[in-house]
């Protein structure tokens, strides 16, 4: 797998290890990659960490031949929309060039396999619902045939990578699978994304920055459910197909923020801070901010029997509890690089 030191990837590593599977984890350890996410995994011989870049063809090719994997699960990406607005180049490099390099190396490796190994090999590409663009309030949810209409540099780079994956199946027969999922949340998420950012700020009584009017809607998918969907698609998905993965939990951002406030007021009341909802601060909107995402996950349910099992309320409670119990992890990720980003993205917004 690639990107296994990031948020979703590290959750996936733990799931694989629990199933007794061997995982070769290729990760560049960018600001979003964190070795501390893998402390538990590192205790197991079946987790092998490889520090490297998916854009490095020679490194990827050598790694494949050294370990002879049965499948590649590709998580590695630049993943934060706001950063893609500030610095799109990094997104083109990793998400487009990196996926292309990985596909080239995967194809060369796959062509050397025996006929049985070739048939059983899978390349699973983890992508996003953001490739489909933005929905109006009454539009039907995104399904696998919804036309692509990416709006941010992040979404455009992921859409490009999806198209490359599709082309490698159609042109070369590489047995690919693509999953397009909604917003994940849960343990180990880097606190630049809405949910962990709000948990940490609310805990300390800092302003809770809500972009625009707070009425943008996202579908929220608990990371454990997402990882089980990836396993299901990897084991039983049909090569060449794409599967939409969602949590059946559409919420407006302001509702998400309010729910986090209520949970923290209950679990960690603080007389000085008081009612945490008063910390909400509406700040200037993200440019090109998509209004609504929603996922129709009926194909993966119908064909492969996968459904989300964790409700948003339950998943959010688990997530808040995890951040409360992992103060050390939080201190660890709040490095200079994190502080620089918070200053760059919020200082001017909050001052307005
Ligand atoms: P993340 O940003 O937390 O982690 C990305 C990981 O990739 C990091 O460990 C980083 O070090 C690694 N990486 C980055 N560039 C690399 C490179 N050039 N070579 C090797 N490793 C590199 O991301 P995430 O939230 O865990 O997302 C994982 C995947 O899921 C991404 O492809 C993302 O587009 C997709 N996705 C995420 C969400 C979400 O809500 N987080 C939703 C839909 C889809
Ligand atoms: P985010 O977690 O960045 O995910 P994505 O942009 O991939 O959906 O943002 C989720 C929603 O929350 C999105 O509509 C933007 C909004 N948001 C805020 O209102 N304030 C913030 O500080 C952040 C980071 C996001």
Can you lay out the helices and strands and say which pair or pack?
Layout: H1 7-18, E1 23-27, H2 39-42, E2 47-51, H3 57-67, E3 71-74, H4 81-86, H5 89-111, H6 115-120, E4 122-128, H7 153-172, E5 176-181, E6 183-185, H8 194-203, E7 208-211, E8 217-222, H9 223-236, E9 242-245, E10 250-252, H10 253-267, E11 280-283, H11 298-304, H12 312-325, H13 327-333, H14 336-351
Parallel strand pairs: 1-2, 3-4, 4-5, 5-9, 6-8, 7-11
Antiparallel strand pairs: 8-10
Helix pairs in contact: 1-9, 3-5, 5-7, 8-10, 10-12
Bound molecules: nicotinamide-adenine-dinucleotide and thymidine-5'-diphosphate.
Mind explaining what this structure looks like?
The chain is α/β, with parallel strands linked by helices. The chain has a domain of 227 residues: Rossmann fold. Helix content is 47%, strand content 14%. It has 14 helices and 11 strands. The strands form 4 sheets. Strands 3-4-5-9 form a 4-stranded parallel sheet, sandwiched between helices. Strands 6-8-10 form a 3-stranded mixed sheet. Helix 3 runs parallel beside helix 5, helix 8 runs parallel beside helix 10 and helix 10 crosses helix 12. The mean pLDDT is 97. Bound molecules: nicotinamide-adenine-dinucleotide and thymidine-5'-diphosphate (TYD). The site of thymidine-5'-diphosphate (TYD) has 12 residues, from helix 8 and strand 7.
State the main characteristics.
single chain, 352 residues, alpha/beta, Rossmann fold, four-stranded parallel β-sheet, three-stranded mixed β-sheet, 14 helices, binds thymidine-5'-diphosphate
